[in-house]
Automatic annotation (TrEMBL):
Keyword hit for Flavoprotein: no
Protein name: Ferredoxin
SUPFAM superfamilies for this protein: 2Fe-2S ferredoxin-like
InterPro entries for this protein: 2Fe-2S_ferredoxin-like_sf, 2Fe-2S_ferredoxin-type, Adrenodoxin-like, Beta-grasp_dom_sf
Alphabetical UniProt keywords: 2Fe-2S, Iron, Iron-sulfur, Metal-binding
Length: 83
């Protein structure tokens, strides 16, 4: 989320600044990367249920994804709607 906001990526708003309380950073992670990114935590899981856009098995809040070298080349899709 932080990298996307700093670089003006459309569709990732990050309204709460990464505090897991807005879901405006919702993304769909590329399936190949899901084993590396991992599942959402409990709070994130609850927030994803409240996201405006449809939830998918690959949904994550991008502010909760820790960027590591293992994620080099990570592909995410942004939802059609973000609040
Ligand atoms: S920036 Fe608000 S939940 Fe991610």
């Amino acid at each position: 989320m932080a990298a996307a906001v700093r670089n003006g990526v459309p569709g990732i708003i990050g309204e709460c600044g990464g505090n897991t309380s807005c879901a405006t950073c919702h993304v769909y992670v590329g399936e190949d990367f899901m084993p590396l990114v991992g599942p959402p935590g409990d709070l994130e899981d609850d927030m994803l249920d409240l996201a405006v856009s449809d939830r998918r098995p690959t949904s994550r809040l991008s502010c909760q994804i820790s960027v590591t070298e293992a994620l080099d080349g990570l592909v995410v899709e942004t939802p059609k709607e973000q609040p």
